[in-house]
Amino acid sequence: MNYVVLPLSQGSKPMQLTKFIKAAQGLKDRRDNRGKRHSLPFVLCGVTLAILSGRASLSSIQRYIAHRIDWLRAVTKENAASVVSRAQLPRILATLDHAALNALTMQHFGVYLLAVEANAWQAVDGKALRGIPESGGQQRVRIITAVDQDTCETIAQAKMQSAKKGEIAAVRTFLHETGLETANITLDALHMNPKTTAQIAQAGGHYLIQTKRNQAELYALLTHIAQTTAPFAVLNQQEKGHGRHGERWAWFYAVAALPFAERWQHSALNTLTVVMRQTISTADAAKISLDISFYLSNYARSGAAHVQPASLAQAIRRHWGVESVNWIRDVTFQADHVHTKDADLAQLLATIRTFAIRLLQRAKFTNFQAAIERFANCPALFETFLTDAQML
User: Is the pTM of this model over 0.90?
Assistant: First the structure.
């Protein structure tokens, strides 16, 4: 896994970025000099612009490059560029150094962890690349992303080096290498693991992780506390929309003194949040759903970094913002429909898709599909966007 934290200039303003097409010229080209018919930066830029134009499969991307070759030559200023064939395209992309590409795209994400506000929350999650067939019962190839909960923007991404090692260990490495272990992190129930919680707590960060029934002993202890102990804070929120009326309650309990199993001794388990969600259909009042969830955090009730109940409740709700990014990846950019047996190629394309999503987010588009269609219908508008986004 690789990650780049860019240096900051005066104050909190980021350094000036080199245009993407120019920066791409610095990527190491590992092809034999005798076989370099196509410029690596041109191919990479062509693939990126194809994805930004709504193309998903390698065949569709290749056709985009072929059909728009004159325009691509003009905007990239590579007048001698030729059309890359469908057979050549994956071979050229396979020569890209994923770590170097990740560093390059991260620069253009504008990732400055040093400037992250102390109380901001980041959602970290793994994403299966479903276009890769499972083999021998092994876990699907995955990527790991960190999404800022306030903006839903991807601030870091890495590929899992090996599906065999599993997402839990891969996320721990990701948190360490990115420095996110020192931040406020939300994770799903898969990562309610003593090694993960201890790592974040001992690094000075804060975690908020759901706990489910698969951890029977822990879940039973938390259930007992919720049923027999008075919470130190209670929050209630109501909302209407999407054909339903929703109400949620959040109860907060101090649990530092509980007799947790020894394996949790370095995790600083301090606060339990119990969230109950009730949803009633506005069309049929008989349709009612009720859900209760438990979340543990190392935020303490008192001290310099004491718990803010409203912040925890909001972080729980916003954690699923990472799913909205995955939805854009899967639906708008059709990631799940791109089939390949090459795991490295799939992860490389996932990096480029994340880059494309990030560029559209930075431009404040509210409807990505509409933006892509406008770009397809108006090349001049697309070129202006690419120039403003420091692509060209």
Answer: no
